[in-house]
């Protein structure tokens, strides 16, 4: 997944949830097979995609994790720490493996700027899946 497309989708999902409220921070969890997004590139892409919106000044926190790989030979389910684990089981070396679980990005939380009328910040902890 390219960071630019991912950032556009993240900002669109955040804006739908924000319903016009000013966004202070966004936490995104991402599991990617083969290509781990560069946090600096995601930060820059988020800034570009959010320019001129209620998320323009928001901080983005990117948490990355490798996808899980299941081996049909030995039954192991292990994190794919590198690209080799996507084609061969780290446990037995078997090549009958598949990516198990989701890959992509999920918005874990959105923190809003305090509402000047109520002096309270609102945070949502519901996850939203981002597909690009």
From TrEMBL:
TM regions (residue ranges): none
Pfam (any one): HypA
Entry annotated with the keyword Zinc: yes
Gene Ontology MF, one: nickel cation binding
Superkingdom in the source lineage: Bacteria
Alphabetical UniProt keywords: Metal-binding, Nickel, Zinc
GO biological process annotation, one example: protein maturation
Protein known as: Hydrogenase nickel incorporation protein HypA/HybF
Source organism (scientific name): Nonomuraea wenchangensis
């Amino acid at each position: 997944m390219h960071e630019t497309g991912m950032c556009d989708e993240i900002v669109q999902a955040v804006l739908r949830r924000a319903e016009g409220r000013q966004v202070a921070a966004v936490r995104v969890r991402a599991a990617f097979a083969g290509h781990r997004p560069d946090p600096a590139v995601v930060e820059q892409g988020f800034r570009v995609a959010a320019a001129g919106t209620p998320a323009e000044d928001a901080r983005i926190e990117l948490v990355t994790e490798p996808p899980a790989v299941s081996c049909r030979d030995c039954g192991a389910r292990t994190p794919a720490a590198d690209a080799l684990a996507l084609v061969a089981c780290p446990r037995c070396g078997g090549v009958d493996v598949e990516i198990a679980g989701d890959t992509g990005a999920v918005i874990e939380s959105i923190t809003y700027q305090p509402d000047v009328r109520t002096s309270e910040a609102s945070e949502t902890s519901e996850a939203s899946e981002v597909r690009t």
